[in-house]
User: What shape does this take?
Amino acid sequence: MARYLENVWYLAAWDHELQADDVLARRLLDRPVVMFRKSDGTVVALDDKCPHRFAPLSRGKRVGDALQCGYHGLTFNASGASIKNFFSDQIPPNAKVTSYPTKVLHRGVWIWFGEAGRADPALIPDLSFVEDEMLSIHRITVRANYELVTDNLMDLSHAEFVHAESFRLGGIMFNGQHSVVEEGDDIWSNWLMTDLPPPPSAPQDETVDRWLDMRWSAPAVMVQRMGIVPSGSPPRGAAPHNFSMHVITPETAASSHYFHSYFTGMPKTPEQAEPPRAFTEEDEPMLEAVQRTLGDVDFWDHKPVILNIDAASIRVRRRLAGLIAAETRVSEADRGGAPA
Amino acid sequence: MARYLENVWYLAAWDHELQADDVLARRLLDRPVVMFRKSDGTVVALDDKCPHRFAPLSRGKRVGDALQCGYHGLTFNASGASIKNFFSDQIPPNAKVTSYPTKVLHRGVWIWFGEAGRADPALIPDLSFVEDEMLSIHRITVRANYELVTDNLMDLSHAEFVHAESFRLGGIMFNGQHSVVEEGDDIWSNWLMTDLPPPPSAPQDETVDRWLDMRWSAPAVMVQRMGIVPSGSPPRGAAPHNFSMHVITPETAASSHYFHSYFTGMPKTPEQAEPPRAFTEEDEPMLEAVQRTLGDVDFWDHKPVILNIDAASIRVRRRLAGLIAAETRVSEADRGGAPA
Amino acid sequence: MARYLENVWYLAAWDHELQADDVLARRLLDRPVVMFRKSDGTVVALDDKCPHRFAPLSRGKRVGDALQCGYHGLTFNASGASIKNFFSDQIPPNAKVTSYPTKVLHRGVWIWFGEAGRADPALIPDLSFVEDEMLSIHRITVRANYELVTDNLMDLSHAEFVHAESFRLGGIMFNGQHSVVEEGDDIWSNWLMTDLPPPPSAPQDETVDRWLDMRWSAPAVMVQRMGIVPSGSPPRGAAPHNFSMHVITPETAASSHYFHSYFTGMPKTPEQAEPPRAFTEEDEPMLEAVQRTLGDVDFWDHKPVILNIDAASIRVRRRLAGLIAAETRVSEADRGGAPA
Assistant: This one.
């Protein structure tokens, strides 16, 4: 069974995926979760499994600020307690489901699977730039483990091959400077390519420098920033003019929800915001092929050859493994057990 | 591996599913079975696996009162003995398959997987009412364990929710009286709803009482009776005017054959007798969703919350478990082993 | 895990399946293999799994006589060594994949999974008759273990039943003489049918003798010869006028590549050479049904009843098991372990 980091916020859905009367089922971290909105707009997230006869509660309906099971009508409030049995005044005290803290922020619905008392919304990464309506947002499901998707983002050198036709970088990353920078708990994977021919829209008599950086926050929240300046100007000094967001939430051990936002320069409705072809036709088939090759065997047990370009992705894998191990030790100590 | 009650008749097929020259393959209790008719109309049921090279015998053909394998022609009689090897006069004595007792009764083909000597047709539940041609009969395959399907029938309170749109009971069961009655080895789940508004076709100046009962016989043979009388008349005293049959035969641990007959008021051919929409669009998706939630984990290990409406279905689950355990003890004692 | 004979040539592909710039992925003996051609026309076969991030190398492209991974560009030469990392001059010494010996012969590409030093092309069975362009060649994938497919060919008595409609033998094999002949390591399964009515094209006043022989070479290379002479002439004395080839290469434990060539009397392009209907509509469904019946349980553990017609197929199964066991003993002795 895969272990996931628990005391951290996960992006569960885009805000627009959950309209007023919607009842949304989604598998997150290998758990069935059902979400609906209270009348005040806040989101309730419950285990999607009625404790009576195990019907998915998502087959039921929202009744006021509660959720009524579609099988025998047992009704649960926002805290997961059963408040109504249509056939009796008595409700067994164990007729309850787990309720998870949620927070609507940055156009998303965030969920917390760890200790409820530690679910501080201030821990949600600052993704306020996503609130700019000039950024389009979408979500795809990739049949690959979330750490494979993270690897792909923390090592953008793949763009020279996987996206050779789409991005046409033409080898500028081959001689780029790649650096890994730690910033608190976050890890940056930064590329700087200098003395490049200018793009058509720039003065043609001087070369340019480009940067392409990705910041990772646990467990799999990534922000990409790109920029271009005349050669010799301080890179990253001016505000980068292009941010995009990549947040990966595990669906199962072998599949992921990929939430993405990117600058399109005009507002788009969710229906208009299609995922870029580079995602669906280039990254996604490659990631899924790798997942099939890995099968049920752990990534490290395949004994990967480590290249220089893996510096950031390996650092991230180790950081995440360390955070999960620390949680496990604390949790076992709490139960009086010996640390693993 | 699931344990099934063995010394009991199972409904294997409707009579009309097996025409004179048909060779019918069906998985029953996780076993592959092939059925065909002898010229006298009786049904032969054999293991659907040739002992020579393991071809399904159902890929062969009926030759007289025997079944010829479609791979190399080895031919088996009604008792499962090989009677013909086209390439030699010699037939190894172990060239045989298990033959199961069968009985055609009540428009159905019944099969017995237990000790052949105990296969008394008198043990088939009396379902003679099904022989009335005003009852339509059909069969569907539900991808859910047969005990889940039984639960669904022994607790009809689900009609208020699963069938809210189809049956429009409007809450009359919320205040109904539910009782569980034992009758020999059978268990009744009985509902009585009193002082209801009259249906449009009845005198409008008096209220009515309705009953809705389900009788269970092991392993999963159920008969439903419904009736309506002026309020205060003895319920169930007059012959109920509406019977229907629900017989569930395990296909695998996670799927079931559901044989159903119900009053349609006119004769219908099998082709005309479609399953009611309430089955295929309401019960079936719910049962399959519950099965997916249960996965490979035993029902009890999910620790169901017990409500008052579960009284009959829980009684049935325990009765059936007791019958299976008793068979296991007897069978182990026969082998000289200690009881479990 | 299935054990396969390793120190033997397997037919991996038809020559025409691998054109100059093709990169062909094929699963062979449960291993992912990628094949491409060098400029001199020889074929390179590598493990289809980049050791860096486990992308299938078959998603990459041929660059000169090397194969460039489609994920991050790591490039491998014909011996499986990485010769190019676009992002560094350094290549870790463990950045390599296994390369398998190959040989193009008899219109096919042969591959060797055993000890490379023993890969002598002289060990490829003589199938030079396949080079006759009057023979059509094709390949199908059968979802059945290769030994089941071999059984089917080494016991052609099935033609009387499986192919009753296609071949219309009409029972001539029932009284045929079946003999098993060993010829070195090869095993012949030979049928002789005598005193048959003449075919329409022959003189109608005398009977004929027909033979139908199949030669097996390890692991699953079979050659079929058929002939007909006036009754009493020495059978098989004259050159048989009709050869066909059946070579089975395991894809997985439950599926096989079936390479077949047969006399069509005219040259056909690969696109024109469709598999005979008797294969795809008669043999294949039967073999796949048997495989489904066997499931994951070993053939022998199903305790097959042995008939006279099984003489050759059983001899072949035992010969092959002996060869595999001998390889295992040698390999364990090499490692200093005790023989199994």
